[in-house]
Design a protein that fits this description.
This protein has 446 residues and is an alpha/beta fold. Helices cover 28% and strands 27% of the residues. The strands form two sheets. It has a nine-stranded antiparallel sheet with strand order 4-3-2-1-9-8-7-6-5, with no helix packed on it. Strands 10-11-13-12-14-15-16-17 form an eight-stranded mixed sheet, with helices on both faces.
Amino acid sequence: MKKIAIAFLLLCVGLTAHAQWFTGMSQKTGLALCIHLTDTAAGLYSPMQTMEPLPVSSWSLEDGKLTIECKKLGFKTVLTRRDSTFVGYWKQGLFKEDITFYPTDTIFQLRRPQTPQAPYRFDEETIATDYTDSQGNKVHLEGTLTYPKGGGQYPTMVIVSGSGQQNRDEEIMQHKPFLVLADYLALRGIAVLRYDDRGMGASTGEVEKADTRLFSEDAEAMLKAVRKNKHVDAKRLGMGGHSEGGAIAPMVAARNKDVMFVVMLAGQGCTGLDVLLQQNEAIFRAAGVSESLLAVRMACMRELFQMPAGSSQKEYKAVIARHTDGLSKEQTDSIGFTKGMAYTLKQQMESRWMQSFLTLDPADYLPKVKCPVLALNGTKDSQVLAKPNLERVKTLCPQADCREFPGLNHLFQHCTTGSPDEYMLIEETFVPEAMQAVADWILGLY
């Protein structure tokens, strides 16, 4: 996630009869924002930057709408009370972002109790490889092989991260799910190889022109690199992946018979286009958007996602204008069609990765996978929806063991709505019951 160098404000105004904290997260910057409400005090906090309150130049509350300004920083926010949350936006200069504040017990503190701390309960070593991909790019990949203390050979899983360039821990908002999983599996007698994506950490390689299929070549290169390691039992060597990695793992298994098992964590069964449409619908529904406005969003996004390559920004604007004709600015903003949306979407749609992902269809590789497959999804996953994707995985790959986990989001955390807004606020990194399911299944194969 790219960080934007902007000074952030957190707000506090007397709206309740008792002191109360609210915390929101800036998706654009990865920073937490906090609101402290008392009878008489108003304070603004950005606790990941400073614990000192930041000043507000003016604020007003009328008919449930809270407006706060900090003229010195060119900052303004408008929020509306919605049940137990505050929903609205903040902006600074030309930058604008939607945000939701959730009730919390105290000022936000990053707590990640599951993250293993040194001295570790496992042994580890670096695994690296250099190869040339099918585009002719030279790629250097590095990762960490984690295995139980005491030596020996173990069943091993090469694990692949989700979309976007991520480090070997698949770190997001200081959660390190792959490190947590590797620690758990090592204690159960299973080795794990996790690696930095090309362009991240110690790994290098062309990124701008890379897509899911090319990333699968990286995963296969790491599989080959670790296969002859003295701690790896090649007859019990498999591939796992989360999100996009959950598509890459079976892609490799479909063409490489050295893959003895596959674990799909929130991996897709539907086409890329359908996954993105399902994701849009789930996220905006979780945000409380009405069904009528949601229908507008979905009809427009379906058309936008299928725009011909090379379409102009003017053509994107025309599609949005046609679908939102007659809606108020507040209504169009609530479904994400804010000023600049056409430009942003055009930039996203022009990327090689996006063009490739939209046409990615598991029907091209899942039927070719002959080894055992475990597919897990959370019922509150708003990024890769459990029901439609697991159903199609089972249809395309009948031997797959497909399981839904109630109440879990895309990161396999217990959650409230499943919205990505919650990821940072949740202390849990990876629920033990999901990790146990992975361990029990792998060990049960042999």
